[in-house]
Specification:
This protein is α/β, with parallel strands linked by helices. The protein has 16 helices and ten strands. The longest helix is centred in the last third of the chain and has 41 residues. It starts with a strand and ends in a 6-residue tail after the last helix.
């Protein structure tokens, strides 16, 4: 019996299948309780995100049992799971948990959200009463490894999404985003991500411009932003320190003339612009203007590729850290494995000791000489403690089991003269 990590992720299954086997947060506690009984395991935890569903457990369970349980729980055909699952045991399971917690196994290398998600899986397992000694140790070791990877490498310091790269570049131009005004053109997924990242950076003000006002208002409501139509952009452009555009327009939305007019009103205060759209939303000639920092999607791709390479270097260092943590965990487990033997040995010695002490007390009560009692106590303790080990060592010598002899030398620190 040992630690096991079983799952299906973005590396092994389609998004549709991952959606079918995902567990809603509100049913996880009950799922863990029933799974522990159904699989007959001591401890179990469940991690379920859009990119992976993983089961961590302590017990003796076969791959087939886990597949059948998952298929039955989610009401899908077993054959859909058989070609896309993975199962790690022992050290490999701990290594996998560490890689997941550190973001080294993520779709976006080094993404930080997974650390919070795996911590939540641990907390829910504790709440359900299905995480105890063994999984607690495994999770704590995974958390320790993840924190080391985060603090000792640059795994999360280089943005690898277009949205985040845009905001990171803006930070380089404007050291204080709290006083900056951002104009976001478009209302799709990329612009929504940009808005989220800007809010996380405490941007001063956001204006969302879109072809349809309703969609702009829906997005703006989530970020306490102002919503306008594309036709209103000339009225607010001069107030915009940051302009990030991502629409499906076939023609440019911002021309050189409009930006030039805005710069005059700004008294040539710098303006940072990112054009994520293909084809361009912002005319290429805008780049000719002084006081404008214009980046295209190609510029961002170069930044992202450089950052991906930097993250990979950090990931390699992170893997070295994880290997160290796995060795540490293995050492701890081996030490724990000796605990029962040590306890049994101590109990055995204490029984012999208590028996001899009782005999000594009786002898003293009968008036026997104290020195003789002490000598008898010491002699009897020595003989009884050494009897079985001596017998076993003689037997080992007769049978040519030199390994046992060597272990005795190491165990009792018997240095040969």
């Amino acid at each position: 019996m040992g630690i096991l990590a079983f799952g299906i992720s973005h590396k092994s299954a389609s998004v549709d299948l991952r959606g079918q086997i995902a567990f809603a947060p509100e049913i996880v506690v009950q799922t863990l309780k029933t799974a522990r009984v159904s699989l007959e395991v001591e401890e179990i935890a469940l991690l379920s995100t859009c990119n992976r569903t993983e089961i961590y457990l302590q017990g003796d369970v076969s791959d087939q049992q886990l597949l059948e349980w998952l298929a039955s729980s989610k009401g899908i055909e077993l054959t859909l799971l058989e070609s896309c699952f993975y199962c790690h045991r022992g050290e490999d399971a701990i290594r996998h948990m560490m890689r997941v917690a550190s973001g080294l196994d993520s779709l976006v290398l080094g993404e930080p959200q997974i650390f919070g998600q795996i911590k939540s899986a641990y907390a829910v397992g504790r709440e359900a009463g299905t995480v105890a000694i063994y999984l607690n140790q495994a999770f704590q070791q995974a958390f320790s490894a993840a924190k080391r990877v985060r603090s000792e490498t640059a795994i999360g310091q280089n943005p690898v999404s277009v949205a985040y790269a845009s905001v990171s570049l803006a930070e380089q131009i404007f050291t204080d985003l709290h006083s900056a005004h951002a104009l976001l053109i478009g209302a799709g997924e990329t612009i929504e991500l940009v808005a989220r990242h800007l809010k996380e950076k405490n941007i001063g003000q956001i204006t969302v411009a879109n072809r349809t006002l309703n969609r702009a208002q829906e997005l703006a409501a989530n970020f306490s932003a102002e919503a306008i139509l594309l036709s209103d952009i000339p009225d607010v452009l001069h107030r915009s320190d940051i302009v990030i555009s991502s629409t499906a327009s076939q023609l440019p939305i911002l021309g050189k003339g409009a930006v030039e007019a805005a710069l005059k009103k700004r008294k040539h205060k710098p303006m940072f612009m990112v054009d994520i759209a293909v084809p361009r939303d912002i005319e290429a000639q805008v780049e000719e203007l002084a006081d404008v920092y214009l980046y295209s999607v190609d510029d961002l791709e170069e930044v992202i590729q450089d950052n991906m390479r930097a993250r990979q270097v950090a990931a390699d260092l992170g893997q070295t850290i994880i290997d160290q943590e796995v060795r540490s965990w293995t050492k701890q487990q081996r030490a724990l494995a000796a605990v029962d033997t040590i306890k049994a040995f101590r109990d055995h010695v204490e029984i012999i000791r208590d028996g001899e002490i009782e005999k000594a007390h009786s002898a003293l009560e009968r008036g026997q000489n104290a020195a003789e009692v002490i000598n008898t106590l010491a002699r009897n303790l020595t003989n009884k403690l050494l009897h079985k080990p001596t017998t076993k060592l003689k037997q080992a010598g007769e049978e040519g089991r030199d390994d046992t002899i060597h272990v005795a030398h190491e165990l009792f620190d018997l240095n040969k003269k």
